[in-house]
Amino acid sequence: METDIKVWTEKINELNKGKEKKYYILTMGCQLNENDSEKIAGMLKEAGYVKTERIEEADIIIFNTCCVRENAEERLFGKLGEVKKYKEEKGTIIAIGGCMMQEKHITQKLKESYKFVDIVFGTHTLENFPKDLYYALKENKKIEDILDIDGVVYEGVPVYREDKIKASITIMNGCNNFCTYCIVPYVRGRERSRNPQDIINEAEDLAKQGYKEITLLGQNVNSYLVYQKQKGEDVNFKVLVNGKEKQVNSFATLLKALDEIEGIERIRFVSPHPKDFTDDVIDAIKDSKHVCKLIHLPLQSGSTKVLKEMNRKYTKEDYLNLAKKIKEKIPEVTFSTDIIVGFPGETEQDFEDTLDVVKKVNFEQVFMFIYSRRVGTVADKMENQIPENIKHKRFNRLKELVEKQIEVQNKEYVGKYVDVLVEGESKNNKDILTGRTESNKVVNFEGSRDLIGKVIKLKIVSEHMWYLKGIYDKM
Ligand code: SF4
Q1: H/E segment holding residue 173
Q2: Which residue did the predictor score with more confidence, 169 or 29?
Q3: Of all atoms in ligand 1, which is nearest to the CA of residue 183?
Q4: Domain 414-471 listed as CATH 3.40.50.300
Q5: pLDDT for position 199
Q6: How far away, in angstroms, is 272 Cα from ligand 1 center?
Q7: Could you check whether 163-292 and 295-412 share the same CATH topology?
Q8: Where are the domains of the chain?
């Protein structure tokens, strides 16, 4: 679906003629939300706005919300309390978007207690943002633009990315899985995949701009095009990559097509679902030149019983067998994962099963979460909720195990040469450059600025918990 963004951004430009206007965005949540914020920024840029990091000087403040993280609601309402004075003092436009706006109890609370908010938009109406802003500016209207639909795919939305080396591309949106702890299927709608040619065009354009790494995003990336196929749609797309015709009809074939793009050195993807990790995807990763051999494989729990309660549709053994199969086909592969500790009904034995999988798979990175209840989910209604103190104790035990494993892994890097994509100056020390290995380890080293944006070989000379230290000896 194409949008009429240009029409509305031109109208806003006309309205603001001669005045310098600034925007401030706060993004909460996952990489998909960050990508949505890049689209909001892209639309605002076209409308003549420039970015500011100083909230007090913004003419429009946007909160792009998430409802997955704990305390998200308190954070949003706290932020709204802080910005109310800007509305009162200088008429700053306050806009709120994102997943939380698809939750009725939140929009109700906004209407009742935060009447100063100008624009509320949901996950299915992001592309209407310039139109909503125009009416808020011109007619001083309060806008609520939320649709309760399965969702559509919009193309042609301008994207403004601050990072000039790494970029993310949303390839599909929504989720059909309904894991019992997760609110995403209720707020992002059903799975819908973008046309592969639009994805390839975006990646080729990024390569032309000098980007070196792309991350493909989706709630369930490896079911790319699957739902369309199930609905009987023709998903045999002929696409052009580097002027050559290719066929794309699945996630595996999309990876193969993207692998052909000249200039893109690394391709990553998050998040796949273990139940949909088919052999053709494993083979596509194995045979590719640019798809990173680090696979993010969300585990969530190592207990078959808990996995069933979570509606994850795989067992502990399925997960371990999948990791083993991938490792056999791609010996250099490494894994990262997500784990939820303290899901309702999780016993000591269930938690031990999680630790067991962590020991066996030896993840390079584990994103650990303490289970927290989400209104509207099945797990929220489960009676056997785990006391907070037990959840925290288990979380600390898992953290300890993961850190020990990372310490051992990091030691193994010392003395080896690794390929590092140099991302820029270190945040803490401008004299140090920083980059990442294919396995996503941060490497800091001394070197000249012209290495930024290049993949170079570094010798690892020492290891620390969260980064490795390398030297560039031009090997
Ligand atoms: S796969 Fe599960 S955890 Fe991931 S977005 Fe869908 S419902 Fe949520």
Answers
A1: strand 172-173
A2: 169
A3: 8
A4: no
A5: 98
A6: 10
A7: yes
A8: 5-145, 163-292, 295-412, 414-471
